[in-house]
């Protein structure tokens, strides 16, 4: 087995017998990503895990890029559904945006390797229509939460607010996961008080246009 082949467990082997091979390959990929990270994934290795010939796997995904793209699309769409549900369960512009942030942080906390996989742009087909649609759905979720047509008529302001929000949230999560929050618990870096303080300030800045009156 080469270094970039996933390490199989007894439960992995022969898990596919009939039915949806595409689904079986994506599920097997999820298991590998969780255990070893995205770099351990290969189509040939996944084919062995589910008990089919590599040629069968290649009929569904032409290469690893197509596989990672499909995996990323599913993850983004799942995050959008979760974030939208959390947002719609509360009222108030600031609280609704905070709900989206918490959904994003929760995703990274519960599935750190999957979160890291989403950030590997070089492994994704950025022209894939499904991937573009998933990204658009995420952008739309933020746009419709942060921007009120009656108050934010300037499209450049809207776009800047959206970009600032996602850049800040993404950067915050990445810094914590990469160990740059000095007082954070290594086993739960996203639970650090600094993270909570930072996203509360972010909510005030981008959803209400203020921040000076936030009290910690």
UniProtKB/TrEMBL annotation:
Species assigned in the record: Pontivivens marinum
Protein's name according to its UniProt entry: Transcriptional regulator, TetR family
DNA-binding region: 42-61
The keyword Transcription regulation belongs to this UniProt entry's keyword annotation: yes
Keywords annotated in UniProt: DNA-binding, Transcription, Transcription regulation
InterPro entries named among the record's database cross-references: Homeodomain-like_sf, HTH-type_TetR-like_transc_reg, HTH_TetR, MT1864/Rv1816-like_C, Tet_transcr_reg_TetR-rel_C_sf
Statement: the UniProt record of this protein carries the keyword Ribonucleoprotein: no
Residue ranges constituting the HTH tetR-type domain according to the UniProt record: 19-79
SUPFAM superfamilies: Homeodomain-like, Tetracyclin repressor-like, C-terminal domain
